[in-house]
């Protein structure tokens, strides 16, 4: 544990002013980057993938997080497993990056062989006294929450993941994410710190000026506005929107669809927020014309008018709609480089070109992610400028950023920084 008085990181944490962005060093320094990996990507629960990444027994995919490499797979009994990608002999990587189809896990170095459940079944030339039962692949603690896979690399994971599981299992049940299919995936490397990626996602202050495609279906007023800055007509429109939200939320919940905002943010270990949002325009989906992209609806869904169940976490954001879902994973690569992996999900039986058009399905979030990537890079460049000073958040539109920064400092201090 670091000395809280002498640690350069602790000095930076103490410099953070309430209601303001973080000091530059927290977005730039290599020691902070390593501390972030340790605290937020090893000791907290993080989203890493989906059950439908590995739909059949023998399917496996590798996820790298810092120096850790994980194997997400489905074993011979169709059970989801998450294993460390490390041979128990001399530590060789078992699988290369990407996806594989396996019957056994075989180390390419010395051919130690494991069942898909992780048990060692063959270790040549190890002698009679060798006990293979003591050398299974190390498992990773994980939860499948509505089909979303969360892992924690710590031996003492935060227990408040139970709240996320309780809230989201119910909300995601109609979408049957476990049995959906990945229609498309993109990987974008943003030239910025992972915290800038998350902060950019947690506000829509910039949406009207930066995301014309998204704003066809997304309502920026949902994330705050200064009523005094609006003209009389705009203020009346905003007030009507809030009235409609209350009415629509009450109706959705009366019909058995949990919809009200639920937050577990600062003051907690596991950080998340969920709410069922109204979709603008045609009101069906986040597409160029706000109509459904896929005619075969998700899971047991029979309606297109149930809005967008959004879910934020500290390394993810997700949108679940009647016709498809979008899930996004954020993984730090360097102090100024971040992987943003986006997946589009459809009903498991949906057929491209018959039930959906891939461009209509993906174009809004492809454009939005590319636009955000440029914004994050510009933010990183400005923060690296010696002229940068932490600026004030708008209390109307950037309250979630203040909450995130507060949570970040709390958790760093809780882990000895």
Write up this protein.
It is a single chain. By secondary structure, the protein is an alpha+beta fold. It has two domains: 46-144, Rieske Iron-sulfur Protein (3-layer Sandwich); 174-414, Naphthalene 1,2-dioxygenase Alpha Subunit, Chain A, domain 1. 27% of the residues lie in helices and 23% in strands. The protein is built from nine helices and 17 strands. The chain has helices at residues 8-15, 25-28, 30-40, 161-172, 194-201, 207-210, 232-254, 358-383, 399-414; strands spanning 46-50, 59-65, 68-74, 80-84, 98-101, 105-106, 113-114, 120-122, 141-145, 148-152, 180-190, 262-264, 272-277, 308-313, 316-320, 325-334, 337-347. The strands form four sheets. Strands 11-17-16-15-14-13-12 form a seven-stranded antiparallel beta sheet, with helices on both faces. Helix 5 (194-201) crosses helix 8. The model has no long low-confidence stretch (mean pLDDT 95).
Short description:
The protein has 417 residues and is of the alpha+beta class.
Do you know the CATH architecture of the largest domain? Alpha-Beta Complex
The structure class reads alpha+beta
How confident is the prediction overall: mean pLDDT?
Answer: 95
Give a quick account of the main beta sheet: strands, pairing sense, barrel closure.
Answer: 7 strands, antiparallel
Write down the overall geometry: globular
What is the number of independent domains?
Answer: 2
How many helical elements?
9
What letter string, H or E per element, gives the SSE order?
HHHEEEEEEEEEEHEHHHEEEEEEHH
Question: Per DSSP, what share of the residues sits in E-state strands of 2 or more residues?
Answer: 15-25%
Low-confidence spans: pLDDT under 50, at least 5 residues? none
The percent range for helix content is 25-40%
Strand order of the largest sheet: 11-17-16-15-14-13-12
How far apart are the first and last residues' alpha carbons, in Å? 8 Å
User: CATH-wise, what's the superfamily of the largest domain?
Assistant: Naphthalene 1,2-dioxygenase Alpha Subunit, Chain A, domain 1
CATH class of the largest domain: Alpha Beta
Radius of gyration: 23 Å
Number of beta strands:
17
Q: CATH topology of the largest domain, which one?
A: Naphthalene 1,2-dioxygenase Alpha Subunit, Chain A, domain 1
Organism: Ancylobacter crimeensis
Pfam families: Rieske, Ring_hydroxyl_A
GO molecular function: dioxygenase activity
Cofactor: Fe cation
């Amino acid at each position: 544990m670091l000395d809280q008085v002498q640690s350069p990181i602790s000095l930076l944490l103490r410099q953070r002013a309430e209601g303001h962005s973080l000091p530059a060093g927290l977005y730039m320094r290599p020691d902070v980057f390593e501390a972030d990996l340790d605290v937020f990507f090893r000791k907290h629960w993080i989203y890493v993938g989906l059950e439908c990444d590995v739909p059949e027994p023998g399917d496996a995919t590798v996820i790298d997080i810092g120096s850790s490499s994980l194997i997400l797979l489905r074993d011979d009994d169709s059970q989801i497993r998450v294993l460390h990608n490390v041979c128990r002999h001399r530590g060789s990587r078992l699988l290369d990056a990407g996806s594989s189809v396996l019957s056994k896990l075989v180390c390419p170095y010395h051919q130690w062989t494991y069942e898909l459940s992780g048990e060692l079944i063959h270790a040549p030339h190890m002698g009679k006294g060798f006990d293979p039962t003591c050398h299974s692949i190390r498992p990773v603690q994980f939860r499948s929450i509505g089909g979303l896979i969360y892992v924690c690399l710590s031996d003492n994971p935060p227990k408040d993941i139970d709240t996320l599981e309780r809230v989201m299992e119910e909300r995601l049940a109609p979408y049957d994410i476990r049995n959906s299919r990945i229609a498309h995936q993109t990987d974008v490397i943003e030239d910025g710190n992972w915290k800038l990626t998350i902060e950019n996602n947690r506000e829509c202050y910039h949406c009207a000026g930066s995301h014309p495609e998204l704003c066809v279906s997304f309502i920026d007023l949902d994330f705050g506005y200064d009523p005094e800055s609006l003209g009389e007509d705009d203020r009346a429109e905003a007030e009507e929107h809030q009235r409609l939200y209350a009415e629509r939320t009450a109706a959705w919940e009366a019909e058995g669809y949990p919809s009200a905002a639920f937050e577990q943010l600062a003051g907690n270990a596991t950080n998340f927020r969920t709410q069922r949002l109204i979709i603008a325009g045609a009101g069906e989906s986040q597409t160029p014309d706000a109509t459904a992209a896929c005619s075969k609806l998700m899971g047991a869904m029979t309606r297109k008018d149930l809005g967008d169940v959004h879910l934020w976490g500290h390394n993810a954001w997700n949108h679940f709609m009647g016709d498809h879902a979008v899930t996004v994973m954020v993984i730090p690569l360097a102090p100024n480089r971040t992987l943003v992996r986006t997946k589009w999900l459809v009903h498991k039986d949906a057929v491209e070109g018959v039930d959906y058009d891939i461009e209509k399905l993906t174009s809004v979030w492809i454009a939005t992610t590319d636009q955000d990537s440029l914004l994050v890079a510009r933010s990183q460049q400005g923060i690296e400028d010696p002229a940068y000073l932490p600026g004030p958040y708008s209390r109307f539109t950037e309250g979630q950023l203040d909450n995130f920064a507060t949570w970040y400092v709390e958790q760093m201090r809780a882990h000895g920084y």
